Backbone:
């Protein structure tokens, strides 16, 4: 079952990376301050999320909120394009562009306004065949905030070349819960 749990984490990573290369301010300002260009980029991100929702991402996260938060977190459409080459034409191609740590942290902080990372991972576990009880057990064994921390790592290292802080705790949780 550990491979299924890891597969669920991969689904979480893919869903997160599908939307994670836009712009906003350092203070975490909301979408009410977004320009027309920012809103257009947020809409492109939302459309990409909604079009590629095989993981059920939109059932746990408000994808419109995520589009706005992503653009806001990276400083707006112009900053996102300058820094990451991210614009309405490339919104669906940014899966493998690494973000800077501070940007990734702002994106994840914004995403917390849009949904629950733990619930998304639980839903992924169940989609890969775990019972809800087993998924709850595994998530209950993980330290608070670890799933969101893992998403930050996935945004800064989208190729997965480094170690993700969730790997060892996820394996240990699976063993503790008898699903390994």
Residues:
């Amino acid at each position: 079952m550990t491979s299924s749990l890891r597969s669920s984490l991969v689904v979480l990573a893919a869903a997160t990376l599908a939307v994670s290369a836009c712009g906003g301010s350092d203070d975490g300002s909301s979408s009410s301050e977004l320009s027309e260009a920012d809103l257009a980029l947020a809409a492109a991100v939302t459309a990409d999320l909604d079009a590629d929702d095989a993981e059920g991402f939109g059932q746990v996260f408000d994808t419109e909120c995520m589009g706005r938060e992503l653009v806001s977190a990276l400083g707006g459409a112009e900053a996102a394009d300058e820094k990451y080459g991210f614009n309405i034409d490339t919104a669906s191609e940014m899966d493998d562009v690494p973000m800077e740590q501070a940007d990734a942290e702002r994106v994840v902080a914004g995403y917390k306004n849009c949904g629950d990372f733990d619930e998304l991972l639980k839903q992924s576990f169940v989609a890969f065949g775990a019972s809800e009880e087993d998924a709850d057990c595994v998530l209950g064994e993980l330290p608070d905030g670890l799933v969101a921390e893992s998403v930050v790592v996935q945004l800064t290292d989208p190729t997965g070349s480094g170690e993700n802080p969730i790997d060892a705790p996820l394996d240990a949780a699976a063993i503790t819960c008898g699903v390994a």
Q: What stands out?
A: The chain is about 60% helix and 0% strand.
